[in-house]
């Protein structure tokens, strides 16, 4: 692929199916040239349950990109999430025959880190270096030039279900969209909002999706922890629906327009009008305090589970840059103070890194973190040397009039 070629990313999420197109500008910079989405079909809890419906969603977004932006997308990178994602630690080692670690040993162990053996049906998505060890010394930052006999490297492998990834590929293939590679949503979101300094200082990124929540922890510039919780914004909507015996549409509207993640002192006695779902019936109302109690319980539980995992891994106290929230759920009213209370750390809504342009008018850019991060991760490393228009014609299989 030529360094100036445009790149596209596809996410078939629980709530929406989205395609974004990025234009490489060189030096790690990117312009988001176009993006569009529709509500997903055939997806439940971040997993495809009906390939034909998911295909329709992908095809519909492609059609919108053609009609609204005049882009015909033929290839894309796929971003995946959901309970199918798991992580495991691996360790590889090499002998140091000369007694001093040199480039040969570092290169060899760097190659061996990818020789992981996963259970049948699992596909590696990302392998990250956690840290070196040399003989009986752990947490070695840079082993080159150190004396020893056995060089070790600990890694974190993020992997997904081959079957679930194949389902997404099949949906894209049926829509005549070729998948070039697969990326993990959690690290993609972190790529979109964390600067190198954030990663060095220690940061937690929580990506609040519709069907699941991804989170990654970074310390000393390295990815040390990644996981997925099978709870997302759709679960909050379902909680509201069952608590008040209302329709799913009514529950979603209450969540986005009226609900708060924190129960306020002035909520008591306040009631929210609820238009009847059936014409001819009288309007009803529900208690704001009761609504916020439902939302607070679900989101508070989610954050508490994440905190417990970080405490167990002895990482929470190392997150000096704080907690960054991304995904559609980051738009929930008062979610920042709730998260601050649970984690005891500074919490902010993630901002897209300054190397990315084209989203200046977007009201909630944090909701685009995974798709933008995927574009960043797949940027070519060379300097563009031909026009964006030429690349579009050769790679995207279409014309922009």
Q: Provide the CATH top-level class of the domain at 195-352.
A: Alpha Beta
CATH architecture of the domain at 195-352: 2-Layer Sandwich
Uncertain runs with pLDDT below 50, 5 residues or more? Answer: 383-401
Share of helix, binned: 25-40%
**Class by helix and strand content?**
alpha/beta
What does this structure look like?
The protein has 401 residues and is of the alpha/beta class. Helices cover 32% and strands 31% of the residues. Among the domains are: 86-160, Dna Ligase, domain 1 (2-Layer Sandwich), CATH 3.30.1490; 195-352, Nucleotidyltransferase, domain 5 (2-Layer Sandwich), CATH 3.30.420.40. The protein contains 11 helices and 19 strands. The longest helix is centred in the last third of the chain and has 25 residues, at 288-312. The chain starts with 6 loop residues before the first strand and ends in a 6-residue tail after the last helix.
